[in-house]
Amino acid sequence: MNPIEIIRKKRSGEKLNREEIETLINGYLNGRVADYQMSAFLMSVYFQKMDFEETAILTEVMLRSGVVVDLSKVPGIKVDKHSTGGVGDKVSLILAPMVAACGVPVPMISGRGLGHTGGTLDKLESIPGFRTNLSLKEYEEVIRKTGLVLIGQTNEIAPADKRMYALRDVTATVESIPLIAGSIMSKKLAEGIDALVLDVKVGRGAFMQNEADAVELAKALIGVGTQFGKKVIGFITGMDQPLGFAVGNWLETVECLDCLKGKDIPDLMEVTYILSGAMVMLGGKAKSIEEGIEKCKETIQNGKAWNKFKELVAIQGGDVSYLEDVSKYPKSKHIVEIKSEMDGYIKNIDALEVGFVSIMLGAGRMKVDDEIDLKAGIIFNKKVGDKISVGENLAVVYTDKSDDLRTSIERLKKSIFISAEQIIPNKIIHSLVDEQGVHPWYGCG
After folding, report:
1. Domain count, the chain
2. What pLDDT is recorded for position 34?
3. Would you call 308 a catalytic residue per the annotation?
4. Where are the alpha helices (DSSP H) in 154-199?
5. Is 161 a catalytic residue?
6. Which structural domain range is residue 36 located in?
7. What dihedral angle (degrees, nearest 10) is formed by the CA atoms of 56, 23, 172, 111?
8. Sign of dihedral through CA atoms 20, 168, 225, 431?
């Protein structure tokens, strides 16, 4: 079957069958389909979309391109979490040790930064020595010993997705529901989970910038997971401003360490607790999300989550001394404070623009092979709704780059909007999505 015919068919908006999808994906893996042809296919899907049947087939073909891990010998219900990506989204580093400390095994295969969003792997690798490139044998050994494991996608796990993931980032085809669904679920189904909790971001800093698209993506992910016999629920959460205060890999990791030791960063911990509570419920260690949240809070209060994270870092080769004393970490060449030029209240922080500025500072990638400066980024001093005075610190920029520093600072200033009137921030948890549909979220209780 000629790949050109398949690309033309999808470009024209026609539905592809299993044989055509298999031909294209497997052909890309074995070299019969070139990068430029796969790029054309991805762009065709971006514009013409796929229906649920096509999306499910795409997911299965990507899943079957590699191995499916069997964790049946690991006791308990294995539960993972996946976020569709945002700016300052460092939830996994707090959530995974909390849930594992509650007795729910957490096998997590994560990704790197994609587009303007950060990646869990890059944050973990900011810890000196931390290994995310474990073999599947090591992956199984770590979760058996510690109850959690966080690694990157191996060559054996959905290799078709691994190659397509990198190509999507540099061909502006990231924001496609079937491509996102296929990428996420092929990895998650391969890692040996029994259940999955989704954090589907919506807003300026998310790939889904309106509620309808976010809900459509959540339904697609839940539908695919259900078809493969997994229990999946999701939450639609806001991403109009960065989550927490830190943006950038090591800076975000330090913020997570603070939270694991008991610091309350309201928006970050609200999202973290709702997702972790749902995981604990699906893992059979709580009867409700509310009870799961309370159990997770206990792991912060009694230090079990903090100790679990240190245990994970140690077993995956990381230097725990940097967790105990973050002042040991190398400092950026340029550390610049951004001062407010007016009195008022923070009206908005443009998360998308912040994401692009962080890339300019060195915290993200413009090309697949770009090297990241793990210590680069931004720490905000204010959130939406906070009062600000002339001369007060809005944010601090960290970078080794000199060439783009002035431009980065100017863009960052323009991404922060100040109003004379106080703004009430939008709620961050919008709704819960499950097999029965969409349910407005009013909180626990």
Report:
1. 3
2. 95
3. no
4. 159-170, 177-190
5. yes
6. 3-48
7. 60
8. negative
pLDDT at position 189, please?
94
Which amino acid makes up residue 444? C
Residue 111 is part of a domain; what is its CATH number? 3.40.1030.10
Q: Is residue 366 part of a domain?
A: yes
Task: Provide the whole-model pTM.
Answer: 0.93
Question: In this structure, how many other beta carbons lie within 10 angstroms of the beta carbon of residue 353?
Answer: 18
- Identify whether residues 337 and 385 lie together within a single domain: yes
Reported in sequence order, the residue ranges of 221-359 that DSSP labels E, i.e. its strands, are: 231-238, 246-247, 334-339, 344-349
Q: Catalytic site residue 187?
A: yes
Task: Specify whether 70 is catalytic.
Answer: no
Quick check: helix, strand or coil at residue 408?
Answer: helix
Same domain? 310 vs 337: no
Among 81, 112, 123, 168, the one annotated catalytic: 168
**Has 8 been annotated as catalytic?**
no
Q: Is residue 393 part of a domain?
A: yes
Say if 15 falls within a structural domain. yes
- Weakly modelled stretches of the chain, pLDDT under 70: 113-116, 366-369, 444-445
Do 40 and 156 lie in one domain? The reply is: no
Instruction: Report if residue 106 sits inside a domain.
Output: yes
Residue at 351: amino acid letter: A
CA gap 119, 81 in Å, rounded? 14
Q: Which of 83, 92, 183, 276 is catalytic?
A: 183
Q: What is the pLDDT of residue 382?
A: 97
